[in-house]
Design brief:
The chain is of the alpha/beta class. It has one domain. It is built from 10 helices and 14 strands. The protein has helices at residues 26-36, 43-46, 63-71, 94-111, 144-156, 175-181, 190-204, 237-244, 280-288, 319-331; strands at 6-8, 39-41, 58-60, 74-77, 84-88, 115-120, 127-130, 138-141, 161-167, 208-213, 249-252, 269-273, 291-295, 313-316. The strands form 4 sheets. It has a 6-stranded parallel beta sheet with strand order 3-2-1-12-13-14, with helices on both faces. Strands 6-5-9-10 form a 4-stranded parallel beta sheet, with helices on both faces. Helix 1 (26-36) packs parallel to helix 10, helix 4 packs across helix 8 (237-244) and helix 5 (144-156) crosses helix 7 (190-204). The longest helix has 18 residues, at 94-111. The termini are far apart.
Length: 352
């Protein structure tokens, strides 16, 4: 099958109009996967609380490893099934822990996912949120070592992918949370969520993703539809387990012995919001001469197309146009040939 391997990025915690909420970029991912035949994207795009989908044309790769793939440091190996282990923050209350364990059992019994085991951290992770609804979501983990040690424990038992469930502070009545739920701000917890998953990716080098453990929130009549997926269940764990269930293995490069499904040299394009062109994956893509498809998708960052004089940078108005651009690239169609006005070809003169 003809494919055009494409990386699809919507950075976490920058308030994107599309992709800044609970899985609201999933329809876009399905569209781009259909156009490219091979899409590599990250949990922020795919996770929709209780809602998610598998797609054989989509590789589910944590953001830190997505950057490493773009830089040529790793390759991906397709697998039929991952053996998933769950790390639970010991700060989680017993009732909420039981709810999450029931989700894991449901994913085994109803979806056939291999959720193998879980471990509770020896100490609470102590998540600290530092967010501004008009800027970028952030935060930190006060006890990162206990997270790494819990992951090592699971891997020693044969686990091949890790889901993390951390206890987050109860900020359901904070201005930032209410603004976000009404579709007007940045997800206040997404920045520190990325810190958690990046930590596991960096030190343990396995597929991973994070789901926050939060106290139930009060009903909000003004809820934005893009935030609705976060309001329909007790946990956000289902989409993480669905995504990890057949997430690709990470293959460190160079490697001559391991079978590789996707080598970084195969990647042709990167789709990214306009304004978010300063990330590691995009900069690596520019260095390698990849097609950078910049989509108008309002967010809080300001690294736009005007900062670059790069011939393979294509600005499009929406993700429908991005899909069309990918199809043209895949079919070898000159993009200028479908634009109007159509310019005549240039004449060059010989120089003595």
């Amino acid at each position: 099958m003809e494919i055009s391997p494409t990386i699809f990025i919507i950075p976490t915690g920058i308030g994107c109009e599309i992709g800044g909420f609970a899985g609201d970029a999933l329809p876009v991912a399905k569209l781009l996967a259909s156009a490219s035949g091979c899409l590599i994207t990250h949990p922020n795009v795919m996770n929709g609380g209780n809602l998610s989908e598998k797609d054989q044309n989509i590789f589910y790769v944590e953001g830190y490893n997505l950057d490493r793939l773009a830089k040529g440091e790793i390759a991906l190996k397709r697998v039929k099934q991952q053996k998933i282990g769950i790390i639970f923050d010991s700060g989680i209350e017993s009732e909420i822990l039981v709810r999450h364990l029931q989700v894991a059992d449901a994913c085994v019994s109803t979806l056939g996912i291999n959720v193998h085991s879980y471990v509770v951290t020896k100490k609470p992770l102590n998540i600290v949120i530092d967010s501004d609804s008009s800027k970028i979501s952030g935060g930190l983990i006060e006890n990162p070592d206990t997270l790494i040690n819990a992951g090592k424990c699971l891997m020693e038992k044969g686990v091949t992918a890790i889901a993390i469930v951390a206890k987050f502070p109860d900020d359901s009545d904070s201005p930032e949370t209410n603004i976000y739920r009404e579709g007007k701000g940045v997800d206040p917890i997404s920045g520190v969520e990325a810190v958690i998953s990046h930590l596991i990716s960096k030190f343990l080098k396995v597929p991973c993703a994070h789901a926050p453990a939060l106290d139930p929130v009060e009903l909000n009549d003004n809820l934005d539809p893009r935030a609705a997926a976060e309001e329909i269940g007790y946990t956000f764990l289902p989409s993480v387990l669905i995504g990890l269930s057949n997430a690709p293995d990470i293959v460190e490069l160079p490697n001559k012995n391991e079978f590789i499904s996707l080598h970084p040299n195969q990647i042709e394009s990167i789709v990214v919001p306009n304004g978010a062109l300063g990330g590691e994956a995009v900069l690596a893509g520019i260095e390698k001469g990849l097609n950078i498809i910049s989509v108008k998708n309002q967010n809080t960052l300001k690294v736009t197309n005007e900062f670059y004089d790069y011939p393979n940078l294509f600005e499009v108005n929406n993700y429908l146009e991005a899909a069309g651009t990918i199809l043209a690239i895949k079919k070898g169609i000159n993009l200028n040939s479908v634009k109007r006005p159509l310019k005549k070809i240039q004449q060059f003169s010989y120089r003595d």
